[in-house]
Amino acid sequence: MNDIAQRIHDIKANLPGNVELVAVSKFHPKEAIMEAYEGGHRVFGESRANELVEKARSLPDDIEWHFIGHLQTNKVSTVVPYVKMIQSVDSERLLIKINNAACDTSRQVDVLLQLHVALEETKFGFTLDEIDALLGTGLLDRLNMVKVRGVMGMASNVDDENRIRQDFMAIKSAFDALKGKYFADDSDFNIISMGMSHDYETAVECGSNMVRIGTTIFGEREY
């Protein structure tokens, strides 16, 4: 087993069985992705539209691509033909654009609603009140080619373990509130994507069932 595949194996061995690992391959070469692929991993995360498309076109078709970065609306039609999930839906306009592009390609796209709970203003995402207002309009009933599967969020980039835990608990609480109010009968609304290389263990303790890990698997980014 190669080094990358071994690191993925070690991470998975320590994750609860209900937690899915997204290997964040952004800024890393296709050769590194193939090392993970040859070890049996299939789910990868990218954050730049052109990079995702270039990789998806040249790597095996059974890879499940997740878009995890801020997605500009003018790039939606570029990525929709290749992605299984867009984790970073942070506006009504983006949600509608994804639905329109999915209609054009006749394929349903899974999405997560990105929550902003972190201290940094630079991070994107909805507040819970904004999602509540959006869903309260009945918009999802009119968007038949996107499937809202859950929420995604990031903790504050701080050394304060209590703050990080507080952020993750806020994301979990928001998921629970949305599930109870809008998705109680939808078994597919079941994903809480939170936790990265430096904090995923805390995220899992707080209820995450999807973690996005890059550096621990692939090393520092290659630009």
From TrEMBL:
Q: Which UniProt keywords apply?
A: Pyridoxal phosphate
Cofactor names from the entry are:
pyridoxal 5'-phosphate
Decide whether keyword Protein biosynthesis is in the record. no
- Name the domain of life this protein comes from: Bacteria
What residues does the Alanine racemase N-terminal domain cover? 3-221
Residue positions, PTM N6-(pyridoxal phosphate)lysine: 26
The coiled-coil regions, if any, are: none
Transmembrane annotation, as ranges: none
Q: Which GO terms describe its molecular function?
A: pyridoxal phosphate binding
What family does this chain come from, according to its entry? Answer: Belongs to the pyridoxal phosphate-binding protein YggS/PROSC family.
**HAMAP family associated with the record:** PLP_homeostasis
What's this chain's function?
A: Pyridoxal 5'-phosphate (PLP)-binding protein, which is involved in PLP homeostasis.
The name this protein goes by in its record: Pyridoxal phosphate homeostasis protein
Source organism? Muribaculum gordoncarteri
